[in-house]
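Bumping with the actual sequence this time:
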Amino acid sequence: MLRYSAAGLAAVGGGSFLGACQTTDPNTGQPEGGGGGLQQRADSGQPIRLAIANEPPYTKLEADGTLTGAAPDIAKAVLKRMGIENVEPAQAGYDSMIPGLQANRWDIVTAGLFMNKDRCAQVQYTTPDLVSTESYAVPPGNPQGLRTVDDLKNKDLTVAVLAGGYEGRTAKALGVPEDKLPTYQQAPDALQAMQDGRVYGILLPTLTLESLKEQQGANFEITPPIEQFPLTGSGHAFRKSDKTFFEKYNTEMKAFKETKEFEQIMSKWGFDAEASRKATTEELCKTES
């Protein structure tokens, strides 16, 4: 897998010029009343900047810079229904996505960023798009027999997680000591650590591990989904100040989820459209941080 740099991606710290008479919220730096901000940017024809992590199948940047993956493909389809086709990617780590959104470095987080209580308190999440399970990547034959959270707690081994990711936080909340969960910035980094023997395995979404194995041609096994992990899912995250645009987008996204095109996108990337339709933002936002 190529390791993508920020070159050619959306510039950090851009944004639309706001009229001199427009007031802003001192807590967010965004226009008050929900009438400006992202809506104004879209109306002026500026590109809508989509934050991604380049973690297939959730998000993917092709070698030529083409933005794809399950979440961006859904976002682009929803925006197209709104008459918007000018979008650009902004690659970021999961732990910087919400701070970068609040700082106006990008406009929508479309990265499979799982909902939880803390995140839902900071941003507006749309209707769910991707619902996920978690698994371990382990060496061939799984000699240590790692399959459950209790196995990880009780066995003398470590597993890699991504910095700022859901898996590390949830594992710690389930009682796994932090020193058993070394962090890495991207999935290929975690894979290299496993291949080098620095960690026994990797804890990531099942589909991410399947994609990683296929793209890297790596020799590892993927365990069945870990039952102790609660239902998780993502939506597209917006600044709370962008209420006007968010409401239009969310309405279109709900309608889009009932289409064949939505099913085709989900099937292409290995996700279950019906699971997405059944999940609610309210239930996913109850997930502990």
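The tokens above came from a reply further down the thread. Confidence is low (pLDDT under 50) at residues 1-35.
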